[in-house]
Structures are given as structure tokens and as C-alpha cells.
Amino acid sequence: MGRGKVEMKRIENKINRQVTFSKRRGGLLKKAHEISVLCDAELALIIFSHKGKLFEYATDSCMDKILERYERYSFADRQLQVANEPESPADLCLEHNRLKARIELLERNHRHYMGEEIDSMSQKDLQNLEQQLDTALKSIRNRKNQLLYDSISELQRKEKAIQEQNSMLAKKIKEKEKEKAQQPQREVLQNQILTNIAPMPPPFLMTSQLPRLNISGMYEAEDAEARRNELDLTLDSLYSCHLGCFAA
Length: 248
Known about the structure:
Layout: H1 14-38, E1 44-48, E2 54-58, H2 63-84, H3 89-113, H4 123-196, H5 215-247
């Protein structure tokens, strides 16, 4: 016996309505999973109950990625529509409602990520949230480890460069100390050589082979002769005076 045709209207009985919602929600989630696996499609399903409880399904538990992709495509479509025809007040109102719902969804996800308002979440929702947090923590740890590795590598490189500079400076200091230590020995050796070996004058400066020029002696001889001439003149004048006195 086949199923009868179901009339498409709101079920007035609260219990029957809740049972029907649970059954059809499960079937819808099952069909969404099947089409995502069989057809390799990215799929996101969002269901709100009449009490406001959220039920969702996303391929690989990546709801945000699919929603962002939907935003890009819808934004491109809106830009194309704007280029073709002006927006009407109804379109603006629809866009406002859509953005408002998007903001509420982001705020709710943020509260869930912070561990708030999770009492109304089912076990599957909590598992999905835990998986998302584990994936995010894994990415954060990988990035932190990469930064630490880069920092350690940079410090090791700087340490190696400093060690090379220290080695070069130590080598130069040893060379300077060695030169300072050898300098007094060289001076002592030079003094000993100068003390033990007297310098011989060149052959062309030896006095025995060159005639002596007594220039100062010539000047002294000329002075003596001048004094003798003056003395002779003086004696002649005295002698003349003396003869004159005798003649008178």
C-alpha cells in the first residue's frame, strides 16, 4: 500500500508537527550528504526550527568557506544587475535583510567559538565545532612553530657571524702581541751589532791620504803680519820724535 498524497499546509498538531520536522530534517540531511559524496559537490544546508534552533550541514564541515564563496558569486551577480538596471527599494530591503542575517550568523558562530551559548547545540553540532576549533588550533600551532623556527635560525646565523668576527679579532690581537714581543728583541740585537762593530770611515775621507787645508792658520798669519806692520810704524814714529828732540 503506497503513501497517500500529503497536503502541503501547516500541521496544526504540535506533536505531529515536531515528529514530521525531525523525520524530514533527517532525510534532508541524509540527501545532502549523499549528493555531496556521490556528485563531489560542495554543499551547505541551514535549517532553523520554529523555536529558532539551528541545524546545519556543510561539506567537510566548512560552512564559512562555502558561505564566503556564495557571497562572492552573489556579489558578482548583484554587480551585473546593477550595471544593467537600477536597484529598486524592494531589492535594497532584501539586501538589508540578507546582510542582517549574515551578521547574526557570524556573531553566533563567534559566540560558539568563544564557548558561549552552546547549551542549545546538539552533540553533532558540538562535534563539528570541536573539529573546527581543532583545525584552527592546528593551523595556529603550525604558524607559531614556523615563526619560532625562523627566529631560531636567524639567531643561529647571527651567532655564527659574531663568532667569526670574534675569531678574526682574536687573530689580529695575537699578531699585534707577537709584533710587540719581537720589537724589543730586534732593538737589542741592533744595539749589540752597533756596539760590537764600529763603523769605518770611507777611504776618501781618511786624513792620511788628503792634504790639510789650514784656513784658520792663514788668517792668523795675516793678522800677525798686520800687527807687525803697525808696530813697525809705531816704532818709526817714536824713533823720529826721539831724534827730533835730540836735534833741538
